[in-house]
Structures are given as C-alpha cells and as structure tokens.
Amino acid sequence: MYQGRRVAVVIPAFNVAPHIAGVIRGVPEWIDDVIVVDDAGTDSTAEVLQSLREPRLVVERLSVNQGVGGAMVRGFRIAMDRGAEIVVKMDGDGQMDPALLPSLLTPLVIEGYSYAKGNRFLSEDRLREMPKARLVGSFGLTFLTKLASGYWHVFDPANGYVAVDVAMLRKLPLHRVARRYFFETDMLIHLNVFRARVKDVPAPPRYGDEHSSMRVGWILATFPLRLLRGFWYRVYERHVLREFSPVAMFWVLGTLLLAWGTVFGAATWLNSLIAGKVATTGTVMLSVLPFILGFQLALQAILIEIHESPR
User: Fold this and answer.
1) Burial tier of 147 (Cβ tally within 10 Å: 0-12, 13-18, 19+)
2) How many CB atoms lie within 10 A of CB 258?
C-alpha cells in the first residue's frame, strides 16, 4: 500500500519476453497487485510469466490481440475487482522507471488529483536521449491533443506512464476508450468530460534495445481523424450535455464560418485565376469576413477552455 491506499500496477504485454521479468522484479514491494495482461503475443512472454515466482502477480491472457488500450481496459477491470484504489500503467518493455512511482502517486494521494502522468519534457537532462523522430512527433501530437482534450496545461500526452484514481476510473465509459495506441490521448479526452484534475510529473525515459511496434505512417493516417472525433465528442459531452456552455456554440459557429471562408475563398481565387479576372470587393469580403469572424469565435473558445482547464 502507499499512504494507506491500495495500489495495483497494470502491465500490458505484447511480445516483451526479454524485458517482462525485469519489469516485474523492479516493481516495489509496497505495490499490492501486479497485473500483467498478455495481449495475445506470439513470443515466449507467456512462458516467462509462468516461470516467475511472484505472489502478487496476476496474469490475464487475451485470446485475440486488442492493443494497448484493450489490454489496459481489461487490466483496469481486474484491478477494480481486486479492490485497488489507484491503478498505475507501466509498459512491459522496461522504459518506465519504477523508482518514479511515488512521484505519480503523491499527486493523487496527497494533492487530490484524479490522474497523474509522466512528462519526458520536464527532464531536460534526459531529453536529448530521446530519438529525434519521437521528439518531433511528440511536439506536433501535443498541440493537437491539447486542442482535442481541453487540457492545455498538459504536455507529452502520449506518455504511457500514468496513475488514475479508481473513484474517477469508475465514472469513465471504459467501453468507449480507444483500444490501441490512441488509448492515452483518449483517456485525457474522457477525463476532461468529468473535469478530472490532471498533473504532469517528470518522468525521464529509459531507452534500451526495445523496439516499438508503433508505425509512424499508421499514426499519421489515423490520429488526426481520431483527434477530430474525440474533440467533437468532448465538446458535446461536456459543453452541451453536462454544462450547456457557450463554448460549444463558439466552436460550432466558428468552425462553420472558417470552413465557409476557406472553401469560398479558394473557389473564388481559382475561378479568378482561370477566368483571368479580379474578383470584386464584395466577393472577396464574402470570404474574408466569415473567415475572420470564425477565427475570432474559435480563438475565444480556446481562451475560455484554457481558463477553465481543470488544474
């Protein structure tokens, strides 16, 4: 237990046979349950887990691969059934330092936060160790996730070293949480609906010989659409269904006006280019005015959300 709270560590495992034993041995003794969800891996992870003599270890093997999100949702349910009050997610590849567990748990136990997550960008001395491709991708993903989730003070959203209070976890519609690599971002979107307080804590990564199964092309092809869907889901659930805030109106009108101004302006410019004629002032204003007004409405919505971001 930690400060009188029962804590479970959930480890989603997919083809991590070289690392999983070391990860489990590194979990501090004061952790009550170590739950490993073997996500239908094809290597010897299951055999390694079977050979371990760890009384706290609970192994759940999925018959069909469900991705990190699916494995975590299953792990969440097992942890809650076993009476956990806080659940921590650790990956099975050894990148997450178990010595940082108190830093994740203290905000929940002492400071009243519902969710704490690692932030690699708060550790400048280790930041240079991060592969450049991950670094660039994290900056772009962070901005889009701030917009989609409404947590403008949160950075490094794809960081999977997280701790969540079970009282908040029970409120979340776990059946709706993304099942694959969008899991961490989707959690933030759902947490914002319930105005959960989220805190970033420094979490330097440990890069070794592990290989990520995440594909950059797949991320670029799927994340923008998922972020867009998550954004509108959050706006409806929080600002329409629960609070009926003007933020929803600003977003809807601002988006429509921006879209009209952009599409009409592009069509007018193209038509002028083909016809060789300059568009009239009135025609130009039909594009410019909606665009400016839409931009102002969207900006106002962002400023309100920054001000109201749960801290």
Assistant:
1) middle
2) 19
Contact 59, 12 (CB under 8 A): no
Token output for 4: 């009188």
Structure tokens given for 229: 């869907």
Query: What CATH number is given for 7-227 in this structure?
Result: 3.90.550.10
| CA distance linking residue 202 with residue 164, whole number of Å | 16
CA 228 to chain centre: 14
Residue 211 has pLDDT above 60, yes or no: no
Indicate the pTM of the whole model.
0.88
Q: Is residue 6 within 8 Å of 68, Cβ to Cβ?
A: no
Domain boundaries, the chain: 7-227, 245-308
- Residues 234-247: pLDDT tens digits? 999 999 999 888 99
- Residue 177's identity, in one-letter code, is V
In 3D space, the residue among 288, 310, 306 whose CA is nearest the CA of residue 298 turns out to be 306
